[in-house]
Design a protein that fits this description.
Layout lengths: L2 H14 L13 E6 L2 E7 L8 H8 L10 E6 L11 H8 L3 E6 L9 H7 L3 E3 L4 H7 L1 H9 L3 E8 L4 E3 L11 H13 L2 E5 H7 L14 E5 L19 E5 L5 H9 L3 E4 L2 E2 L2 E2 L1 H10 L4 E6 L1 H9 L3 E8 L10 E2 L16 E8 L2 E7 L1
Parallel strand pairs: 3-4, 4-5, 6-14, 6-15, 8-9, 8-14, 9-10, 10-11
Antiparallel strand pairs: 1-2, 1-3, 7-16, 12-13, 15-18, 17-18
Length: 363
């Protein structure tokens, strides 16, 4: 491995990041073509169904003779199957490119094998360049393929003692304006935002992303008994990107009304009085919800934490504190009897956001 390989791989990762939140169920991929130490072509995968990064990069080179003997850098192994598009391994072989540098191998067994195919055609292949960064970039895709579930993110704004609402359920506004803007950027980075029915009833939120340049996330409401009022503010905008997760036994007439409003109904099996976590993950992936920021409330966070569904956390703490009797704690489940049974974050980062403290980490 040489230093230039790392530099050009970093460029592919930067290109891939341009499509964050837009490629589900596909991964984030960038590609850079280099010849004689200079970049002659580049591209990235913009959206599922559109050309892959390698093809975008090859097409960006006007004089195709320049591809002869060139090197292509790609953060993820070129695909080796016919899906919505032909194999990128075949496109690379036909282009005349003679070296392929890969960040990480593909975890999707259906599409993997590009590296071995290219080697079999006499093309030099180097793998594992900035591999950890490549894996972090596609942590959502890796979770989808290896654990067959969406990448779930816990996002909560709370007081120093963990209260997300004071007595009576009042929760607006706990954190600063800067934290609120960052929260909206997080909404735009992931496929969906999810809340429990109590949050809809008590706070009546719109749940949109109100920061420029970011896409609008799908909005999910977890509502076992379909209690959601049809007059809720959430229905005032973009009804087609609302997904109500409910029980198969919920009121059919209410389902028909919501369907007529253009809302998506996801029926999920119930287990021990709550959604079956495996079926829930399966249903969300079927609806191209590869990642989801869970914003609460207390019971919803408790459900996801109890079933070990969370992958990552963004926890905002305001420099405020209150009594705990009657307040709503961020996690609405029974406390463990031993500290050995608590959930612990790793790879944790702590920073100041306005007047608040943000803790970011992985479960």
């Amino acid at each position: 491995m040489c230093k230039s390989d790392e530099i050009f791989m970093q460029k592919t990762i930067a290109l891939a990041k341009r499509a964050i939140g837009r490629t589900c169920p596909n991964p984030l991929v960038g590609a850079v073509i280099v010849k004689d130490g200079k970049i002659i072509g580049e591209g990235y995968h913009k959206k599922a169904g559109m050309p892959h990064a390698e093809v975008e990069a090859i097409n960006s080179v006007k004089n195709k003779d320049d591809l002869k003997g060139a090197t292509i850098y790609v953060n993820l192994e070129p695909c080796n199957h016919y899906g919505k598009t032909p194999p990128c391994s075949l496109a690379i072989e036909r282009s005349g490119i003679k070296r392929v540098v890969i960040g990480m191998l593909d975890v999707n067994k259906e599409a993997s094998g590009g590296a071995e195919y290219l080697k079999s055609k006499g093309i030099e292949v180097t793998t594992g360049i900035l591999e950890e960064k490549a894996k972090r970039l596609n942590e959502v895709f890796i979770e989808n393929k290896t654990n067959k579930k969406p990448f779930f993110v816990m996002k909560a704004a709370m007081l120093l003692n963990g209260a997300i609402a004071v007595k009576g359920g009042v929760s607006k506004w706990i954190t600063s304006e800067k934290s609120l803007r960052l929260s909206h950027r997080l909404r735009g980075m992931y496929d969906a935002i999810g809340v429990g029915i109590n949050t809809i009833i008590m706070d009546d939120p719109l749940l949109t992303c109100r920061v420029g340049r970011y896409k609008q996330p799908k909005r999910i409401v977890f509502d076992v008994n379909l209690r959601i009022p049809t007059s809720s503010t959430i229905f005032s905008k973009l009804s087609s990107n609302i997904y109500i997760v409910t029980s198969p036994y919920a009121e059919n007439s209410k389902k028909r009304v919501l369907d007529a409003m253009g809302v998506n109904i996801i029926e999920c099996d119930i287990k021990n009085g709550e959604f079956d976590p495996n079926v829930l993950s399966e249903k969300l992936l079927e609806n191209d919800i590869c990642s989801c920021v869970i914003e609460g409330g207390s019971r919803t966070h408790g459900y996801f934490l109890k079933h070990n569904l969370y992958n990552k956390a963004y926890l905002f703490y305001a420099p405020k504190i209150c009594g705990s009797y009657g307040a709503f704690n961020v996690v609405g489940t029974d406390a463990p009897t031993s500290l050995n049974n608590v959930n612990m974050l790793k790879e944790m980062d702590c920073k100041k956001v306005g007047d608040d403290i943000l803790i970011e980490g992985y479960f």
